[in-house]
Design a protein that fits this description.
Layout lengths: L6 H30 L5 H18 L6 H19 L4 H21 L8 H6 L7 H30 L1 H6 L4 H23 L10 H9 L3 H26 L3 H27 L1
Helix pairs in contact: 1-6, 1-8, 1-9, 1-10, 2-3, 2-4, 2-8, 3-4, 3-8, 6-8, 9-10, 9-11, 10-11
Length: about 270
């Protein structure tokens, strides 16, 4: 039977597609700043703090996103403060990464019945996407695009020259903290689709693909979004037909697109020689 003849499956796929596209667009734009600021490991630290938040959800038998979002924002804020106070980026991220993972593991050890959901937590599950997630994704996309359009030039200047940004009156520390906290919120909503372990791929691969095929920042972001949306849509259908974790399938497709974009980049350089 075709999936179009099953309204339940169609509903699940539509929800996954809407949430996936919304988050893909946001993560692709954020990826541009993450890669250029060399914060590639940041997504790992924040996403694993979500693990601790979800562990508390299971412990208290809750389904709210407020606890995971709280953990993600707090972790992002602490990472930012540690870095701005002189600790290296990798060290600050690693400290919070190991702490939140250990905390989550301890809390889960006191929880019952969590094992059935562990694969969905780690690698994503399109069946976990519900109507509330769609609303959150659409609201976050709207607010994210609005904020990024207003403060894009500020973030761009901070990324390339912090000292010049300070001279121009930009509060660099505040902008940095807010950027990390917003990134944490987006990561929380991405966990259901992509999973805790693999969400960092969406903070690295989009920009890497865009850089392979474009040079100006506008084109890099544009192609980052295109690659991200293509990988998400195609992988959601593939994960349904192959019965594989949605997050893992998205990352595999994205990796293939990155290889293709890399080959395209090599061909362009070869032709210019």
């Amino acid at each position: 039977m075709s999936i179009l003849q099953n309204p339940i499956i169609v509903s699940v796929l539509i929800k996954a597609l809407v949430a996936g596209v919304c988050l893909s667009i946001l993560l692709s734009i954020l990826s541009y700043f993450v890669v250029l600021q060399r914060l590639n490991f940041l997504g790992v630290g924040i996403s694993h703090s979500v693990f601790a938040g979800l562990a508390f959800n299971y412990f208290f038998a809750l389904s709210t996103l407020f606890i995971p979002i709280g953990f993600a924002c707090l972790t992002a804020l602490i990472i930012g403060i540690l870095y701005r106070r002189g600790l290296s980026k990798d060290s600050a991220i690693n400290v919070m990464f190991v702490f939140t993972m250990a905390l989550g593991a301890i809390v889960l050890s006191f929880s019952s019945g969590y094992s059935a959901n562990i694969m969905g937590m780690l690698f994503g599950d399109i069946l976990a996407i519900n109507s509330i997630d769609i609303v959150y994704s659409l609201i976050l996309l709207f607010l994210g695009l609005l904020l990024l359009s207003v403060f894009f030039s500020h973030l761009q200047l901070i990324t390339f020259n912090e000292e010049l940004a300070k001279i121009n009156g930009i509060n660099v520390d505040l902008a940095y903290y807010l950027f990390l906290m917003f990134l944490g919120i987006v990561i929380v909503l991405s966990v259901k689709l992509i999973g805790i372990i693999l969400v960092n791929a969406f903070l690295v691969l989009p920009a890497l693909c865009g850089i392979n095929v474009a040079r100006s920042y506008a084109k890099v972001i544009f192609w980052s979004i295109i690659f991200s949306v293509i990988s998400t849509i195609s992988a959601i259908f593939l994960s349904y037909y192959l019965n594989t974790p949605s997050g893992a399938t998205i990352v595999i497709v994205f990796f293939i697109l990155w290889l293709i974009s890399g080959m395209y980049n090599k061909i362009l350089k070869w032709r210019k020689q």
